[in-house]
Specification:
two-stranded antiparallel ribbon, binds S-adenosylmethionine, six-stranded parallel sheet, Alpha/beta knot, alpha/beta, 12 helices
Length: 392
């Protein structure tokens, strides 16, 4: 077997030859423009691996050298070294639930399931390290994903704190989160500024004029018993204004390269559950679609809890390759510009997302400050197991 490039070359050559002999079917069907492009990207990604590792190492080294000389300068000025010890900002539990709905296994390919498990790991790590952490649950934890965590990843997740894995569906998890958030002993979490503001200025719940994913049946009535549950979906005609206390947000645990458009939206609507999309369009001008990876959506919510500002949250989480800029900072660009190219670019983006979810954790965990090491270590170990699986 040759390199992917050689194989692509063979495929192209076969097409030319077969056009002069129309009765014989080509041995290798020609590669589509998109497949060739993906192949090139894959090669570039692979070729850049060592460079990226080297750059990360250099950056870590620079960071440490800078910190050491800053510390030495302060001590030389008479600062007590004890005062320079980093103090961990404690993480505070807040009365907000985040449920990752993993009940979509049949819609994913093997490598997408692997990617999803990395994303769940990442979400756990982000929540654990966040200034304000949510009640984090994984619903539909049965079948392949549970098997992977238990067998391939060495059941590390059983030692994780602050996350619950449940084999029930997202609504049964939401009921358990509700119980925990409303616990009479006050253990459900602390009311913080961003959430208090949502109570003071109750956010509007308005429907867009144009429906991004019109469905033929009329919208069913709201399930009153679950009115504190919001299923997040980029296909929803509603836009999330603020996160609200004592509310459970469901994020689809799905890696599908957007093949299954509207899947989560339909699931929520059928059950009379509120849906909402993140207000990306109000804050950002994007060069590609506004469908984000599961762990990024979780991270955005955690950032919002901390700063109460969607623009800041999007800017710090949405990957740079999505070409997002804050509105008002774009240089004479049309809001919709670039979206036409989205479908072509989307598959590539999501491929990169999958790779990053697996690759970035290990390097980040090495660069963690000591107070964050606990989360980083178990995530790092889980990630090592992921890499073993991917290469075997
Ligand atoms: C990769 S997306 C899955 C896309 C899938 N086709 C679907 O039906 O939603 C993973 C999940 O992240 C959340 N998500 C992604 N982008 C979002 C957005 N712009 N607004 C709200 N939720 C979003 C949704 O919960 C979604 O199910």
């Amino acid at each position: 077997m040759g390199t992917p490039q050689e194989e692509a070359q063979i495929a192209t050559t076969t097409t030319i030859t077969s056009s002069s002999a129309p009765t014989t079917a080509p041995a290798n069907p020609p590669m589509s423009k998109n497949a060739l492009k993906r192949l090139r990207k894959q090669e570039e990604w692979e070729a850049g691996k060592d460079d990226r590792r080297k750059r990360r190492k250099e950056k870590r080294h620079e960071r440490k050298t800078r910190a050491r000389s800053e510390r030495a300068a302060l001590i030389a000025q008479g600062v007590d070294p004890q005062d320079l010890q980093k103090k961990k900002t404690p993480s505070t539990l807040v009365p907000v639930g985040i449920v990752i709905d993993c009940d979509f296994e049949e819609y994913m390919m093997d490598k997408e399931r692997v990617s999803l498990s990395s994303q769940v790991t990442r979400a756990y790590s982000d929540n654990k390290q966040a200034r304000y952490r949510a009640h984090l649950w994984v619903a539909g934890f049965n079948k392949g994903i549970a098997k992977r965590f238990n067998e391939v990843l060495g059941a590390q997740h059983k030692k994780w704190k602050g996350i619950w894995f449940d084999d029930g569906d997202f609504l049964s998890c939401a009921a358990k989160v509700r119980e925990k958030m409303n616990a009479a002993d006050g253990s459900g979490g602390e009311m913080i500024e961003s959430l208090q503001r949502s109570l003071d200025e109750k956010p509007a719940w308005t429907r867009d004029e144009t429906d991004p994913f019109p469905l033929p049946d009329p919208e069913p009535p709201l399930d009153e018993a679950n009115k504190d549950v919001v299923y997040l979906s980029s296909d929803s005609p509603y836009t999330l204004e603020r996160l609200e206390p004592n509310t459970c947000y469901i994020v689809g645990g799905l890696v599908d390269k957007n093949r299954e458009k509207g899947l989560c939206y339909r699931r929520a609507r059928e059950k009379g559950i509120r849906t909402a999309k993140l207000p990306i369009g109000q804050f950002m001008v994007m060069q590609s679609r506004q469908v984000l990876a599961t762990n990024h959506v979780v991270e955005i919510m955690l950032k919002w809890l901390e700063c109460g500002d969607w623009g800041q949250a999007f800017l710090s989480v949405i990957p740079k390759r999505k070409g997002g800029r804050l509105r008002g900072e774009e240089a004479g660009e049309d809001a919709g510009e670039g979206e036409a190219e989205a479908s072509e670019a989307e598959e590539e983006e999501q491929d990169e997302e999958e790779k990053e979810a697996g690759e970035a954790e290990a390097s980040e965990s090495k660069a963690q400050d000591p107070p964050q090491a606990e989360a980083a270590t178990d995530v790092g170990d889980a990630n090592k197991a992921e890499q073993v699986e991917e290469t075997s």
